[in-house]
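=== RUN LOG ===
request id: a7f3
mode: sequence -> structure
chains: 1
length: 225
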Amino acid sequence: MYLFLILAMVVSWLIQWRLRSKFSEYAKIGLQSGLSGKQIAELMLADHGITDVRVISTEGRLTDHYNPADKTVNLSEAVYEERSAAAAAVAAHECGHAVQHATAYSMLQFRSAMVPALSAVSKFMPFILIAGVFMINTSMIPLGIGIALFALTTLFSFVTLPVEFDASKRALAWIDKRGIVTTSEHAMAKDALWWAAMTYVVAAISSLATLLYYVSIFMGGRSRD
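=== RESULT ===
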């Protein structure tokens, strides 16, 4: 189990490194349509009849996200201004989440409904797990509670996967239909989104591995009773 956790950490680092290198590579290749990430996002929203979502710039790199609470598509500074296949892919992907929200996509609704509980759980879950491990010889209850809470975060990680893949699917279909990208630019956009999706896949697998690790400790404690 320890070996698997270490392997998951290494793979996660490698995918993050690969994602950044891909975005850096594709960011150097100008988009033939000449549209910036901001313009692409606004155009996609308009094409889907979404008028109550704002496109704004946010600090950082690869910090792009859609916020359903205040209905904003937040694009990192580079994506907001850039006119590349990578910027087009990211901008359209985040707008894909806005389209999901507008069309009441079930998995997005499910994930959004989990957020309040996860926000509360994340504050004290690590302490419960640590206490549970140290108290395993006297009581199994704290570790059991910690595992149940961690299982919620693992479920969230797996619920996120179809949400992210669906947003990418919507994004790629739209930029093709709208003529935002050429054939070669589409391939770059698809590749960039694939590597971005892999970060979520690895995160979900790592969360599951960690959950199983705590479960194995719990079962080991029970066997000693």
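=== NOTES ===
The chain has a mean pLDDT of 90.
Helices lie at 2-27, 37-47, 77-81, 85-102, 106-134, 141-177, 183-224.
=== END ===
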